């Protein structure tokens, strides 16, 4: 990457976008992290950001300031927000006005699923990016392995892995560390320019199979459970408002009917190796290896 131009990473303090920061730094990039507070800014620096911009996706002036003098940006939307699409469109407008050259958007697998707001709201953002005139790369990752992290200690304590949909439905997943590596490639090389890439690890396991892998890693039997959504929410104590819970309920209802599967060929080809397996992810959790940022 000639001259190591500065890359703006939206959400550089977060569990997912925070993984893009060290991936970029490892490839010689200088990162400016967009954070919502000074406290988050400190975490973004710990993740590897060289500088911090304090701002909000709903505040155009702060976006203008954050995008000043940067050539490239990574964008990952906040989850389950009513105005997710509007925030993405605003960011693209600000990026165009700032003269941004290249943008990588971490979208979602199969964004055209209309009943899933956390998927379909990404479609107008993808469309706007394609029409923006900027160099672009759109990533469509499967369900993140890292979403299981919050449940891990409970699995270890109780011997039960529970999600609120049928244990027989298959879900394709991916380690966001692999997605972060692809994002870093797209921002520092040209080989992924102007493409859209589905990113999945090998296999699309059902919960019984996932629990079996957990059991192999932990050396004991792990049961797969499928509580109703209300029971699951009360146990997990997610910090979500009613709208966010409603979107989450709709997502799990879709999984209960159809599952969510994709194909690993593209990720394997981009990385030049096998994607990280869910077995390795659980082994990393068991060993205390850092699998998320923050």
Task: Give descriptors for this structure.
seven-stranded parallel sheet; alpha/beta; two-stranded parallel ribbon; 294 residues; 11 strands
Class inferred from helices and paired strands: alpha/beta
Would you give the CATH topology of the domain at 6-145 and 174-202 and 261-276?
Rossmann fold
CATH class of the domain at 6-145 and 174-202 and 261-276: Alpha Beta
The description of the largest β-sheet is: 7 strands, parallel
Percentage beta strand: 15-25%
Distance linking N and C termini: 27 Å
Global mean pLDDT:
95
Q: What's the architecture of the domain at 6-145 and 174-202 and 261-276 in CATH terms?
A: 3-Layer(aba) Sandwich
Query: Which word captures the global form?
Result: globular
Uncertain residue segments: none
Give a summary of the structure in a few sentences.
The chain has helices at residues 17-25, 38-47, 60-67, 84-98, 117-120, 123-130, 149-158, 176-188, 207-218, 229-236, 242-258, 265-271, 278-287, and strands at residues 6-10, 30-35, 51-54, 72-76, 102-106, 135-141, 143-144, 160-162, 173-174, 195-199, 223-225.
What order do the helices and strands come in, and which of them pair?
Layout: E1 6-10, H1 17-25, E2 30-35, H2 38-47, E3 51-54, H3 60-67, E4 72-76, H4 84-98, E5 102-106, H5 117-120, H6 123-130, E6 135-141, E7 143-144, H7 149-158, E8 160-162, E9 173-174, H8 176-188, E10 195-199, H9 207-218, E11 223-225, H10 229-236, H11 242-258, H12 265-271, H13 278-287
Helix pairs in contact: 1-8, 3-4, 4-6, 9-13
């Amino acid at each position: 990457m000639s001259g190591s131009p500065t890359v703006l990473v939206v959400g550089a303090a977060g569990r997912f976008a925070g993984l893009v920061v060290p991936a970029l730094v490892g490839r010689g990039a200088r990162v400016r992290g967009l954070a919502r507070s000074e406290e988050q800014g400190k975490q973004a620096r710990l993740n590897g950001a060289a500088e911090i911009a304090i701002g909000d996706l709903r505040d155009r002036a702060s976006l203008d300031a954050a995008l000043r003098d940067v050539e490239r940006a990574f964008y990952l939307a906040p989850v389950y927000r009513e105005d997710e699409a509007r925030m993405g469109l605003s960011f693209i407008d600000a990026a165009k006005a700032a003269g941004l050259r290249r943008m990588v958007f971490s979208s979602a697998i199969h964004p055209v699923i209309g009943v899933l707001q956390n998927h379909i709201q990404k479609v107008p953002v993808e469309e706007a990016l394609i029409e923006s005139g900027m160099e672009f790369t759109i990533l469509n990752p499967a369900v993140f392995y890292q979403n299981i992290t919050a449940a891990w200690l409970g699995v270890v304590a109780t011997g039960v892995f529970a999600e609120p949909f049928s244990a027989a439905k298959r879900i394709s997943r991916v380690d966001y560390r692999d997605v972060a590596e692809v994002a870093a490639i797209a921002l520092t090389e040209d080989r992924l320019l102007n493409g859209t890439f589905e990113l999945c690890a090998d296999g699309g396991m059902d919960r019984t199979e996932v629990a079996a892998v957990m059991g192999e890693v932990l050396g004991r039997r792990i049961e797969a459970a499928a509580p109703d959504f209300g029971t699951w929410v009360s146990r997990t104590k997610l910090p979500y408002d009613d709208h966010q819970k409603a979107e989450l309920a709709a997502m799990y209802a879709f999984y209960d009917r159809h599952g969510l599967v994709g194909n690993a060929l593209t990720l394997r080809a981009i990385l030049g190796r096998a994607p990280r397996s869910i077995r390795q992810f659980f082994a990393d959790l068991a060993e205390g290896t850092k699998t998320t940022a923050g």
